[in-house]
Design a protein that fits this description.
Radius of gyration: 20 Å
GO molecular function: oxidoreductase activity; zinc ion binding
Protein name: NADPH:quinone reductase-like Zn-dependent oxidoreductase
Number of domains: 2
Organism: Nocardioides panzhihuensis
Bound molecules: NADP nicotinamide-adenine-dinucleotide phosphate
Pfam families: ADH_N
CATH class of the largest domain: Alpha Beta
Largest sheet: 5 strands, antiparallel
Helix content: 10-25%
Number of strands: 10
Length: 222
């Protein structure tokens, strides 16, 4: 995508939302390129993730979020999208970890646009092993999963984990991280339509295991 430069100002293509609603509330438009503060980075987005929080902001639900500052009648942030991956376009004067041309991913503002703003602290260099599309679905959901397991859960070896919503954005990472870190000897998972499995991770049951079958359905009954 090419950003349109004019003598008077610089504009870019973006998905814009002026009212709450379903995906019909979104439309493609041209808006001004956002300005960055000293500690911020302007990222040319190659991919954007769609996390549950962005869905909340599109619909304006739960309503409490509107009172909490999201915008009462319509979203304050007209360009949605938080998760992003892309290439650094420019950096603020106080930014030290990134330079123009770096491949980055993280959490920003207005990711559903050609250019988006992110604080330096909310970005990381993109591993070469990840595509932009893969990297863009990591930051919010995987970060939340990591916080749940480590900062909040403080899991230790041998502890069990019950993952409610294991088929979701956050839960999928929780299952993988718990397995990867070997912090839990048992992982129980649950979602509204999929299985409840105890004694083994639901996504990688051992062959010949005597653990309960992941195909045991338990709709909405964790
Ligand atoms: N505070 C934060 O920073 C933060 C960040 C990220 C997420 N969150 C919150 O964390 C929650 C999960 O986020 P997410 O991205 O993982 O959402 P998601 O992708 O929509 O996943 C929701 C999960 O919950 C399951 N589920 C829904 N209703 C259920 C029920 N009645 N009983 C059992 N399971 C049920 C779904 O199962 P099915 O797929 O089978 O329906 C799915 O696995 C959301 O409320 C989100 O707002 C908070």
């Amino acid at each position: 995508m090419v950003t349109e430069h004019t003598a008077a100002f610089t504009r870019m293509r973006a998905i814009v939302q002026t009212k709450y609603g379903d995906s019909g509330a979104l439309h493609l438009d041209r808006v001004a390129v956002p300005e960055i503060a000293d500690g911020q980075v302007l990222v040319r987005t190659h991919a954007a993730g769609l996390d549950r929080g962005t869905w909340h902001m599109m619909t304006g639900k739960p309503y409490l979020m509107r009172i909490a500052g999201m915008g009462f009648k319509g979203p304050k942030d007209r360009v949605p999208g938080r998760d992003l991956a892309g290439i650094v376009e420019s950096v603020g004067s106080a930014v030290t970890r990134f330079a123009v041309g770096d491949e980055v991913y993280g959490i920003g503002r207005g990711a559903f646009a050609e250019l988006a703003v992110a604080s330096e602290a909310k970005l990381a260099h993109k591993p070469a092993s990840l595509s932009f599309e893969q990297a863009a679905v990591v930051p919010i959901s995987a970060g939340t999963a990591l916080q749940a397991l480590t900062d909040q859960g403080r899991l230790g070896a041998g502890q069990s984990v019950l993952v409610i919503g294991a088929s979701g954005g956050v839960g999928g990472y929780v299952v993988q991280l718990a397995k990867r870190r070997s912090t839990a000897s048992r992982r129980s998972t649950c979602s509204s339509t999929t299985s409840v499995a105890t004694g083994t991770p639901v996504r990688s049951p051992p062959t010949g295991s005597s653990a309960p079958s992941p195909s045991t359905t338990s709709p909405r009954s964790c």
